Amino acid sequence: MKHSLRIIGGKWRGHRLKVPSSKAIRPTPDAVRETLFNWLGSSVVGARVVDLFAGTGSLGFEALSRGAAHATFVERNRHSVSLLRKACHKFDLDATEASVISANSIGWLKSNTNKWDIVFVDPPFERTEIYRKVLTDLLSRLSTESIVYLEFSKRSAIDRLDYKMWKSSVTGEVQFELLRPPNTLCGPANIVSDKS
Contact, 192 vs 169, CB < 8 A? Predict the structure, then answer.
C-alpha cells in the first residue's frame, strides 16, 4: 500500500481507506470530495448511489457515511475489488447496504436495469470517450431528481450530451461537475472559479 485516504464527513469521519500502490488508481482529492458533498447536502440521505470505476470507493463510502441507503461499487481491478470488499467488512456493511461488483463499468452498465439517485463517474482521465458512453447508457436509469457526478482533467473536452450542468468547479488539474438529466427543470449552473 502506498498510502490511505480519509473519509471526511458523516458517521465514519476520520476513518481511512487503503489505496493500492498502482498508477491506475487516482483517488478523488479531499478538497474535491469536500466540495462535492457540500453541493449534494441532504440529497445523499436515503439515496441509492452507484460508484462507477470505483477504485478506492472513496465517493461511495463517503456517501454511505453521510446517510446513503445503498452503494454499488463497480470496479474491474482485482486488487481494488479486494480492498473494497475488505472496507465493506470493516464498516460492517451487508448486502442491503453495499454491493461490490467485479466488472468493467461500461459493460456492467449496459446489462443493468437498476435506477439510481446519485451516480459517480470517475474513469481514467485519458479515456475521454467513456463519458459519452456512460451518459448515454444512464439516460433510462435516472429520474428527474437524479444527480450525475463527473470528474475529469480540466484539459479535456467532455461531451455531456443534453444533460444540464448544475454545479462545476476546478481544483488543480481536476474539473468536477454535477449534472441533471435532460428532462430536469433546474436553475442556472453554479460555476466556481479555479481553486488551484
Answer: yes
Listed residue (87, 36, 32) closest to 57, CA to CA: 87
User: What are the grid coordinates assigned to 108, written together?
Assistant: 456492467
Backbone CA torsion sign across 41, 72, 18, 148: negative
DSSP-based three-state secondary structure for 135: helix
Contact 73, 94 (CB under 8 A): no
pLDDT digits (tens, 9 = 90+) for 75-97: 999 999 999 999 999 999 999 99
* C-alpha cell recorded at residue 42: 441532504
How many alpha carbons fall within 13 Å on the CB side of residue 35?
22
Q: Which domains does the chain have, with CATH numbers?
A: 3-185 (3.40.50.150)
| Cα torsion 143, 144, 150, 155: sign | positive
Maximum separation of any 2 CA atoms in the chain, in Å: 44
173 close to 146: Cβ distance less than 8 angstroms: no
Structural Rg of the chain based on CA atoms: 15
Orientation of helix 58-65 relative to helix 30-40, angle to 10°: 40
Give tens-digit pLDDT for 92-114: 999 999 999 999 999 999 999 89
H or E stretch at 137: helix 129-138
